[in-house]
Amino acid sequence: MITRRALFLLVSANVLGGSAYAFAGYALKAFSPLELVFWRTLLASVLFLPFLFLARPLKFTREEWARMAFVGVFGYAAPLLIGNIGQKLSSATNASLLIGTEPVAIVLLSAVFLREPLTLLKIIAIAGGVTGAAFIVCQGIPFVNVSIAPHWRGDLLLLLHGILWALYSIVGKPVLRRVDPMIFTAITTLFGLAAMSLMLLPTMGAPRVGSSSFIAVASLVYLGLGVSFLGTIVWNKGLELVPASLLANFIFLQPLVGVILGVGLHRDRFTLWSAAGGVLILAGVYFAAKNSESSRSLDLNSSGC
Hints:
The protein is mostly helical. The protein has helices at residues 4-27, 33-54, 62-89, 92-98, 101-113, 120-138, 152-176, 181-200, 214-241, 244-249, 253-266, 272-295.
């Protein structure tokens, strides 16, 4: 029986996650994708630092350091940056829908790198996610009645960003066996910040907010404090109260919130093909979660790649 506190945490975590794309749309009007990721990550990193100082001493192996570095750069910073570029070329609505490919990608990558068997539920999840993504990107049935979307390049980047987010879970699993999730998140976020700093170094300076609107700056702060930091805490607290498989089912809220905000705030175009693609992707997420309930393939006890 799920408690009211657990329900509140589950809903809050996914509403915060789902709102990220609408607010990123505002922030991207004043900041470049790279600047947005850097300042957002910097804000979150400052608040994560106390978790490192308060944590009990813990020695990491070279492999664990390598995994956390990889996750921070390629499983956190890279998908954020690619997702921002993709959203700038596409829309917040499509970003909200295509992020649904992340749990489906986890299923596929688990089979490829963790040698987990491809069950029928996994195959259905992968098929639903791939087909749904194709509908959104192509705005039609590939090779039948495709009408190339004007922002297909952005949609492909958004698809890639969903796949890269899956690396966060796949590569980080072995480390999370013995490391508190908050410590893991703090360290990987700092690695992501270091990567963004190196990329931004040639043009490093104060954020160019002189001509920026208050909404753009406020949106950046919300993304850093509300989504990257608070959203992570709420997610981890929810994970302490319920099984991971139950938490996965609430991911359905993220695309729903994202689409509502994208259409309502940004007047994004939402076609029947987008709706059909979103339904298929969410069906894939559902079957991925059902597979997790039956085989526990997405928990933190699987072997690493």
